[in-house]
Specification:
alpha+beta; six-stranded antiparallel sheet; three-stranded antiparallel sheet; globular
Length: 169
């Protein structure tokens, strides 16, 4: 089933409830703005907490092929794996599915005159990027999770290779 047909779109999702955050690990769900500012760099804060976007082709992971798991940079929740990462040539890391649907949440985003679907970490409500559908990439889901590199952190899988390439350092 497509996430785009889900009834959550068209409504701004409510703030993450503490009990829901606890069920998802709850790492950082109840931090104050001052705590986030102290823990994150100004660039991380702008993207993760203010829904900013890094410039294309500038992020750490847009062209990475290292095998591993991508975690939320703010709270450590596992969000994506290298198995679902693909080259979309858009300048940001692209994935065709999250690691688990419960690890991300979606918000209908109408900012900047566009109609998009924002992707957030379900544990700490940090902005990750956006998801697009029907672009013809030929991926199993026909979706592209366009994620800011600064929103995620790659934890390399030891002794693993992706697409026969050598593991990056």
């Amino acid at each position: 089933m497509s996430i785009f047909g889900n009834s959550i779109f068209g409504h701004k999702a409510p703030d993450t409830a503490p009990e829901a955050a606890s069920a998802l690990g709850g790492k950082g769900a109840e931090k104050t703005d001052a705590q986030w500012r102290e823990e994150l760099t100004p660039e991380e804060y702008h993207v993760l907490r203010q829904a900013g976007t890094e410039r294309p082709y500038t992020g750490e992971y847009w062209d990475t092929h290292t095998a591993g798991v991508y975690q939320c940079r703010a709270c450590g929740t596992e969000l994506f794996t290298s198995k679902e990462k693909f080259d979309s040539h858009c300048g940001w890391p692209s994935f065709w599915a999250p690691l688990a649907e419960g690890n991300v949440r979606y918000i209908h985003d109408r900012t900047l005159g566009m109609d998009r679907v924002e992707v957030r970490c379900a544990s700490c409500d940090s902005h990750l990027g956006h998801v697009f559908e029907g672009e013809g990439f030929g991926t199993p889901t026909d979706q592209r999770y366009c994620i800011n590199s600064i929103s995620i952190r790659l934890v390399p899988q030891e002794d693993a290779q992706v697409s026969g390439t050598e593991q990056e350092n």
